Amino acid sequence: MPNQIHTLIESCKKGNQLAQMQVYDQYAKAMFTVACRYLDDIEEAKDAMQEGFLKAFIHIDKYEPTATFGAWLKRIVINQALDTLKKRKLELVDDTVDNLQVIDDDNWQFDSTITKADILLAVESLKDKYKVVVKLYLIEGYDHEEISEILNIPVKTSRTQLRRGKQKLRELLNPHYNEARY
Amino acid sequence: MKQDIRDLFKEEETFQALPNNHREEFLTKLQSQPKRKSHVFYWIGAVAVAVVVLVLGFNLANTAATTQNTSSVLAQIEAVEAKYLKDIEKEWQSFVALTEDERLVERFKVRLNELDKDYQEISSQFNQDSNNIAVIESLVENLQTRLKLLKDIQEHIKILNQNNEQNEKSI
Fold first, then answer.
1. Residue B143 lies in a domain
2. How far apart are CA B96 and CA B162, in angstroms?
3. Interface residue ranges in chain A relative to chain B, Cβ cutoff 8 Å
4. Cα–Cα distance between A167 and B136 in angstroms, integer?
5. What residues in A contact B31, CB-CB < 8 Å?
6. Is A101 helix (H, G, I), strand (E, B) or coil?
């Protein structure tokens, strides 16, 4: 597998369309799935995914095999999807967080009856600015350095938003909390 | 009981189904991108055209000795032509060696013969009007197309072979 993709990438560098289509076929589904996490409109997600591929092919000379090709591509597709979100004037930065003290807790222990589907549903109901950070961290597995690069926000902001997003998630997913509320 | 929900997302996930026609759509987008020419072809082409243009310019500047110079232009062009034909023959041989698919070979033979017929036509135009740059350019272009055709199909076959090998290994 690594060897094969390597050959394909070399052909892509020469602008070989056949190779580009093969790369597309190999990664389109996974990349579309990624784009769908940020854009709920299927058409928008597909366009972001395809634009991502086109960008990747234009800049393929910049790809360095330090990361896997899939990871490199995913980063481009996520950026593309977030750009689409930004066009809708989504505010990703919260200025009021700077003065807050950041407690960096690494505790993601939730009740074990909670399923992946429950979590995804709860994430969708978060405010947009928390939603994106939570997705980048929890689902894509990026760290705060990477999130701060992708969203162009300070690391501190990324940490704060994640912590708040997680708090919200706990409220949404804690059955006792809900019982007490209603 | 508690669980770290980050672990839930480390597992493989199910993929979203792509909309129909996404592939065709992407191919169209890809084709409408400004094309990155293969460097090698670009340079071979540029050098060939430059040689021809230089020689022609020289020829035009010396109109007095037209007949004599035309023959030297012809010699230059013949040299370029011979070089290309040699390369094309070489690529053809390596293409035939690479594949066992006789239908494919036949199909390419037909295509190359068509290009060769075109070439003969342009050649006869060139014999009538040997000072026409456009004619010379289309001669070179014709040769380049043949060469590129052969290189592309070989690359394709190589990728296919690798895929097959890969599949055999994974079985």
1. yes
2. 18
3. 1, 3-4, 7-8, 11, 14-22, 24-25, 28-30, 32-33, 36, 42-43, 45-46, 50, 53-54, 57-58, 108-116, 119, 138-139, 141
4. 73
5. 17
6. coil
To the nearest whole Å, the CA of A108 is away from the closest chain B CA by 5
Given a contact cutoff of 8 angstroms between Cβ atoms, the answer to whether A72 and A56 are in contact is yes
Q: Burial code of A106-144, b = ≥16 C-beta within 10 A, e = fewer?
A: eebebeeebeeebbeebbeebeebbbbbbbbbbbbebeb
Chain A contact set for B6 (CB, 8 A): 108, 138, 141
**Series of mean pLDDT values for 10-residue runs along chain A (182 residues):** 79 88 93 93 93 94 88 95 81 52 73 89 89 93 92 90 91 67 46
Q: Which residue of A has its CA nearest to B156?
A: A18
Q: Are A8 and A54 in contact (CB under 8 A)?
A: no
Domain count, chain B: 1
Q: What is the value of pTM for the model shown?
A: 0.56
Considering chain B, what percentage of its residues have pLDDT values greater than 90? 5
Nearest CB to B30: which of A17, A32, A113?
A17
Q: B39 contacts in A (CB within 8 Å)?
A: 14
Q: What ipTM is given for this predicted complex? A: 0.75
User: CA of B80 to nearest chain A CA: how many angstroms apart?
Assistant: 25
What is the 8-class DSSP label of residue A110? E
The answer to whether B91 touches B40, Cβ cutoff 8 Å, is: no
Contact A33 B16 (CB under 8 A): yes
* Residue range of the domain that includes B115: 39-170
B139 found inside a domain: yes
Q: Give A25's contacts in chain B (Cβ within 8 Å).
A: 23
Domains, chain A, ordered by start: 2-87 (1.10.1740.10), 95-181 (1.10.10.10)
B1: helix, coil or strand? coil
Is residue A152 packed enough to be buried (19+ CB in 10 Å), middle (13-18) or exposed (0-12)?
A: exposed
Are residues A123 and A114 in contact, defined by beta-carbon separation less than 8 angstroms? Answer: no
